[in-house]
Task: structure prediction
Amino acid sequence: MADPGMGAVTGKHLMAQVVAGFQLASLRCAAEARMRARIEGQPELRRRLGEWLAGEERATRRKLALLTEAYRVDGAITPRLHKLGFVLKQGLRLPADVELFVRGSAERAARCVPSRSGSRLILLLDSGLVELLSAHELLFVLGAEIGRALLGHRPMSRVPLGDPGLSPLDAARLRGLERRQDVSSDRIGLLACQDTRVAAAALFKMAAGLSDRWAAFDESAYAQHFEAAVVPEAAWGLEVAGTHPTVPFRLRALSVFARSEPYARAVGAASWDLSTDGLEAEVERLLGLLEPDLSGLEGVAEEEAANRFLVDGALLLVAADGVVEPSEVEWLQTHLEGVEVGPELVRRITDPDFRRHALAGLGAKAYVLRNKLSENQRAGLLRLLCDLALHAGGMPQPELELLEEFRRLLDVSGELARTALRSAATESPPESPA
Result:
């Protein structure tokens, strides 16, 4: 579909405003709110997270310094882009003005930050994004970025899975928070464009980097990519292939939101298919297909069982082939909190008896987890072990065999286990163990 021009984003349909008095912050999804509250309730985790985010904030400030090199969008030179700011302000009933800057870059990203006075919302766009999307699609992306700013979102996906200051479960929760943040901000993006097909096309183009020249986007066909990721046809242990599940997941979550009470109330509609509770329950179901929900764990002992399962599982994975390379020692030192990594540990985990004793210990931990977590939740825990295996240096046959043992201990079906492995391989590409 060719870019229809600004006429398509200034007609009656897209100029429809959210109803007067509607609070955009009310669209924060329940799953995000619960996870944020859990993090806020852990002072030490909050402190460590604050230290990590301070570095991210410095990186953001450096990026904003590029505004001096970016083009400030004005009506005389780029009238179509300039008008997007007015459409967003009016459609979302924003009290602040929206100001756009375009940076010459082949990247496909956008970022929104409030000005120091709070009177403006500043949107920094890469020219690669502007060239890729239609004006209508840009409304969705920019609306979602405004949502991130209004809801105070932070880029949690860059939290290292094995940060020495975070337990494996804490790191997993922080990464999971960003997925929930996406759900919330996408809802505000949908209010900005008011068309799920347009939102879906924008998400697809940003993920694939393909313009209308190459792709005849089909929303229903792309949604099946999510189904393929969560309902695999082949058995656990076969070669992993498939698409990145995150974008199809966001598409599904948006489709559900468009039929819900909160969306109807935001646009002044009188009827809806899903109540607010029904919407949040469906989002929880979709999230459960992609990641672990470990909220069923209660108390220090149960959380320790999950953490020990992950730590001991990581040690087993590193030693799965009987040899611990220097790069793997460095990886353990960086990624496992509270574990003294040295020659004695290397000797111990490469001892032939270590695997037998360690697996026996994991059996006791798995017993606790089987009694506290659903199968989907246990599959999510297996997903974390897949992440650890990939980040520790790949997935050779001995590690696949060990993951199969973990699958049996956790009593996870072959289909769900393959989902965990597929999701880890497509969403968390391997990094250097050093």
Remarks:
- The domain at 299-427 is CATH 1.10.3680 (TerB-like).
- DSSP finds 19 helices and four strands in the chain.
